[in-house]
Every structure is written in C-alpha cells, then in structure tokens.
## 1
Amino acid sequence: MCPRAHPDNPAAAPASTPAAIVTEERAKLDFSKDMSYGDYLHLDAVLGAQHPLSPAHDEMLFIVQHQTSELWMKLLLHELHAATAHVARDDLAPAFKMLARASRIFEQLLNAWDVLATMTPPEYSAMRSFLANSSGFQSFQYRCIEFSLGNKNAAMLGPHRHHPERFEMVKAAFEAPSLYDEALRLLARRGFAIPASHLQRDWTQPYEANETVKEAWLEVYRQPERHWDLYQLGEELTDIEDAFRLWRFRHVSTVQRVIGFKTGTGGTSGVGYLRKMLDVVLFPEIWQLRTEL
C-alpha cells in the first residue's frame, strides 16, 4: 500500500502521473476553435519551407542553417531600423536597448556557423551542383544590413533587380542615411563640429573617415561623464561592428573549411572575396580614436 500523505512528511504523498499533472494544471488541450502555438507562429509554412533538391542527407542542414539565419537577419533589420530612427529623434534610451539586442543577434548568427562547420567537403560536394548559382551572396536581407550599417556599394543592387519587392527594400536601405550617418547628425545637433560634407551628402556613397569627426568623438571619449549618452552610443556602435566582424570572419573560416578555395556558387572567388570584405571598417573614427586616448 502507498503510505498515507502527512503534512509533516510530504515525501510520503504518492507522486502524480504526467497525465494527472496536466489535468491538475488545467492545461488547455482543445484548440479546434482557438488559436494554438502552431497557428500563431504559422509553423506549417515555416516547417514546410525546406525542400532539398538533392538526395544528400546533409542538404537539410544547409537549408535550415541558412533559413534560420535569414530569420535572425529579419529581426536584426527590425532592430537596426528602429534604433536608427530613435537616434535620428535624439531618443537614445530605446536605441541603446535595440543596439544591444542587435549585437546579441549577431552572436546567434555567429554560432550558426558552428553547426554548418560539421559538414565535410565530401558532404557538401554531394549537394553542391544542385545549388546552381544560388548563393548567400544574393541575400537581400544581408545586403540591407550592410547598407544600414554604412557599407554602400551600388553593384550589390544588381542581384535583386529581378525581384521588384526585394529590390525596393534594398534600394531604400542603399539610399537612406546609415546608422552611423544619423549618429554624426546627432553629434552635430549636440554642438560638435561635424563638417557639412558628412551631414548632407549623397548617402549612396561609401563613408569616408574624417579627422574633424574623429576629434568630435575624441571629445566625447575624453569627457564621458559630460557626454555619457553619446559615449554609450559610441560603445554600442563598437559592439555592433565587433560582432559583425566576428560573424564575417567565422563565415570565411567555415567556407574555407567546407569548400577550400573553390569558386563560390554565386560566381565570386569564394574565400578570396570574403577575405577582402574583412577589411571593411564601418565606423572608422570610433576605432581610430582609441590610439589617441
């Protein structure tokens, strides 16, 4: 017989079965007339979006890794666009939260390469021909991220012209002031001597470092207690670029591990092209000033 439960000896009470626990918790079990978890997240569409083209077992890994990365990039753009708008309105407190979240999203994107790196060269070769010319090089969301962070390149509009809706998204990011452009306009509104060439310019052109801009940031960093929110903005931007660099470096490393120095499916030189992209600096003055502090 089971021992009788006693208030001084709770261990003597009979353990509830999983089914009994569900009943005791009054969990809702009938969703014939109500929205369920799967309905809210549209999981039928999300989980039904994986369509391997090859017989290779490892193609599912390749698809899921890139699809989940695109979902994280969608959230990243959501945060970057909102943060940029808040900076433009001198509303820095919510911008800081959004930028901090953006840095954490880059960490998720970084960690995704660890999973893809479990694919060996023979496993990738078994499915590579089925990719044809499709490549992450053509990711319109990645291009929007780069443009939103200031790495403008008109040639990168090309891969998206065949899809009008995506092209308009990329073009809008290309033509808009970047996060860093808005940060410099904020510095100017706060009384710092930012040259007109960096306040009203052709936003489609790549950003060029400027000595006067560096001096403005130096003043912020030399007196952080006086310019605390701008100092914090500078560090949030540093975090963003640091995380972005790590993500790009891990991309290069993973590609070299899986395909070596083969030409990329998108037509680039593969690892060689990716290594050139590592030299891009998004917020140059914020990195330069560290030498002079």
## 2
Amino acid sequence: MDYQISVAQSDVAFRCDAGETVLDAAERSGYAVPYSCRKGVCSSCEGGVVAGGGRSSVQGDVEGPTERVLLCCLRPSSDMTIAPRKIEKREPVVRKTLDMSVYRVTQPGADVSVLQLRLPAGVRAKFRAGQYLQIELEDGSRRNYSMANPPHESDSVQLHVRHVSGGKFSEGVLRGLEKGQKLRVELPFGEFSLQDESTKPAILLATGTGFAPVKSIVEDAIKRKLERPLYLYWGARRLEDLYLAELANKWHASGKLTFVPVLSEPHKGWTGRSGFVHETVLEDFGSLAGFQVYACGNPAMTSAAHETFVKAGLPDDDFFSDAFVHTDIRP
C-alpha cells in the first residue's frame, strides 16, 4: 500500500510507500526538504501536517492540522497534505555504498582527528559541497560525518572527527585504524549546500567540527571562482579548539573571505572577539536583511542563531543549518 502526499498551496505531490518516511519519499521522488540528522533531534525537517495522519517514531500519533512535525520520522497511515518549511525540485538522490580505505589519520587538535579515506581505484564520489556521509559500523549502527574536502577532490574524502567520551567510533574504532583498513560508507546525504541561485553575501557560522562542511563549501567556492562575499565566523571555547585556524587565516589573508574567530573562554591576552559566535555576527551586521546564513555545529547554536537572526531581519528561507547531533555514545 502507498499513500498520496500533497504539499499545501502548491501542485507538488508524490507517493509514499507504507512504512516509508515522508522525507525519504520526497527524496526518492526528486524533491529536497531541508534536513540534517535524520534522527528526529535537530528539527531541520520540521513542518506542518494540514490534513491526514500518520505515526512518528519520535512524536507518536500525528493528525492534521498540526504544526512542528518531524518529517524525517513521520510515516503516513492515510493520504496526507503537508506544509514543509521549504521544498524544491531536485534530481532524485543517487547514493553509493562503498568500501573506502584508510589513508591517513592526523590529530590537529587535542580532541579532533582528521581521517582521510581513499575510494577504490577508478571510483569517484559525487556530492555537493557541505554534504555528509554515513559510516557503517560492524553492529549495523551508523555515524554521520561531513565531508570536509570539496567535490572536485572526488577520489577521497576527508572527515573531521571530534573525540566523544565513550564514543564507539571516535574512541573505539578510530584509535585502532591502520592504513589500508576498509570502512563501509554510504553517500551523499544532507541539504547543507550553498544556494547557487543566490548572489547574496553568505555568513558561514560554525562551532567545533562544524568547520568541516564549511571548509568544503569555501574550497568549492574558490575553485568555482564565485564572487559573492563570504564571511566565516568560527566559534570555540579556546584558541586551540580552532584546529585549522591557520587555513582560515590563509583564506582571509588572500581575500577569499572574511574570517572572524570567536572564543567563549578566551585566554589572558586574547585581543580578538569573545562571547557567543552568533551574537558576534549581530554585533557586526545588525540587520541581516539581504544576507544568507549557513550555520553548522551544535544544535544549541544553530537553534539560537535561527531564532535571533530571523528577529534581526533575516528571511526564514535564507537560513540553512546542519546541526551536529552526537550519536557516538556506546549504548
């Protein structure tokens, strides 16, 4: 059995198989809905149900009309009319499952490792700058990591892994990896990509390893010689937590973008910016009308930035986020 999913105030409609989520059905039919974690935590895919009903693995039974429904977890039990925050026509998602080889593991920060994986000879990974992949562990569970390399470097992927206390991957698998060892991955996932149809100045907002997809976006923009202004605000507790600050400073010095590091716990003698990274953006710009914002990092930051920036004049459709939801804890 399948169900008809219609989008309110539009002619968009697609079929959803029994047991399939609304988000998965939309992707399969060639429609892009904003999402990040796909686990019902980050709220990026939140939308309304105008009519019809279903069952959410996080929210329980859902019956329209209702708002703030997580489309990544919603499986319909009838035909349904939905009101997503945004939906766009795209080519249907084509994902690959590949066995990648460990090439190098480095540690640029005290709690961050950079994992370089190589694809099989002659195989290329097609993805958009800012997207992520999933690593499948031996027990069948998966971990999401953004690809930090730009799409033109398609024979390998670079992942920035934050060490999580008790982490099955970051403190378990990662520590035992050797060169040549295989990891099974599926890619690509995510809608956190620079909107090419816009020429508005873009504010790139990151905390921690949220820098990874931003790095991909910036290096892709440089490769494609995009002329729109880019502003990178990278927040961390301490200076050493900005584990690739030298690279960001290099972009700044070459005029590729404006880089502003922000520390919430600055050391004595720090003369740069301090406080919350999203509040620093407001201090510098005031009204955000006429901008686009791409925020990536912990959910508290992305949520606070969204609420604050919309109040400061940013159109809701010009805010894009990728909330890093940690699932790397042993059960």
## 3
Amino acid sequence: MSVVKLLVSTLGKATGILTIVVVVLAAVLIYFEDPDPVKYTSMAEDMKTLEENFRQQNKSCFILGASGETGQVVLKELLARNLFSKITLIGRRQLTFEDKAYENLVQEVVDFEKLDDYAAAFQGHDVGYCCLGTTKAKAGTDGFIRVDHDYVMKSAELAKAGGSTQFHLESSRGADKSSSFLYLKVKGQVEAEIEALGFDRYAIYRPGVLLVDRQESRPAEWLARKFFSAFSAVSSTSMAIPVPVVAKAMVSNTLLQPEQKTEILENKDIASLGKSAGK
C-alpha cells in the first residue's frame, strides 16, 4: 500500500511541475504580443491566378530541413501546388519517398561542417526555404548554435552567391538578438545577419508553439502542445499554430509582394495567411 502511495505522490509532483512549465511558457508567449500585421499589395488578388503566373516563370527552389516537422510539410505543399519546375532538397542524408509525386525531386547530400565544399548544391535556385533547426536539449549548447546559426547562415550566404533572390526563414516567436534567452538570441542574430546579405526578398516566419504530434516528444513538451492546442481552439491564434498552416503560409507568401524588401511574419500573420491559403 505504501508503494502505491509513493507512486501517486511521485506522479502528483511530476504533474505539478509540468503544469508550472506550461503556465510559465504561456506567460512568456503572452508577453510577446504580435505587432501590427504585415501588409501586402497583392493580397486582394486571386491565389489561383498568382499560382498560375508564378508557375509560368519556370522557377526552381531548394529546401533545407526537408526531413523536419515543417520542412516535410512545406515540401508536400510545394508538390501539391506544382509551383516550381525543379525542387532540390539539401540535407545531410538521402531521404526515401514511396509516393510517385516525389520521384522528380533532386537531392543534394552535404556535410554541413564543410558547406563551402558544396557551394554547387546552392547554385541556380530562385527561392530558398530554410526550416533547419534543432534544440539545446537534443544537440547541446554548442550543437544548437552550430545548427541554428552557423549552418543556417552559411547556407544563406551560399544561396545568395548562387543566385537566389528569395529566402524564406522559419524562425521563432520572440526571436531577438538582444534577448537574454539563448534560443531567442540565436534566432534573432541569424535573422539580422541574413538580412544584411541583401536578398531581393527576405521573409522571416516567427511561429509560436508548433502543434504537431511527435513520437519522440518528452512529457513536458507533449503536455505543452496539448495545452496550446486546446487553448488556441477557443482563444486567439497568438500563441500556437499547426505546422500545416505554417507550411501553407510560407508557400503562399512566395507568390505575394510585400511593401518592404524584408518582412517579418509573426504568429498571427502566419495563421491568417496560412488559413486563407487553405480555403
């Protein structure tokens, strides 16, 4: 009987800790209120017309992080809408696809530690999508900085040198190069450094908590996702967002013309654009 009581007590403490984590996370996200939404000159145009006009330009693109949560959905969305004549996946390993829709993909396997040796993989593309990233918990502090800053920055440099005119970066809500939080600081730093490269079109996406079920999710992460999923269903979309909505927004935004060369889409911007694209 004492063993049962001990187990109940342990579970109760664990649940309490997870609850505190979720509450703190919610408070942090609420603190970073979304500013005024991005405005576009082409939003009134019909999306199908925009797609057809874009398709006729015979453009090519590459995707970084196509095996990740957002990257794989961006790839699926691009294939479904058939916007590019050529899609190249740049990654550390060859990906396997069973569906015939993926059979014409080009895959470039690179060593991210020696990206300069693979400059050719980044040449000849009009648009680049970067969904590359990891976490401090998975890769450690040095590994996180190396992936989310060094790999992303070097890829952007090679893309610019290779002729890409558009670069679409998946970042994070609250990204700020002056932040005291390592994750947000690194995200903000790479945002600013890529902007300095001078792409003709540079879009930064700052989603909140990404709503997606992952088998490897830790208990606290799983609880946070479930919490925000339920919360966003009855409240605003300022704190969390489903991954497919982010992917749709990134693809649809490629077709639009913003008022400025560099644009930052906060969570509400992404939700609005992504949901309208799904209609």
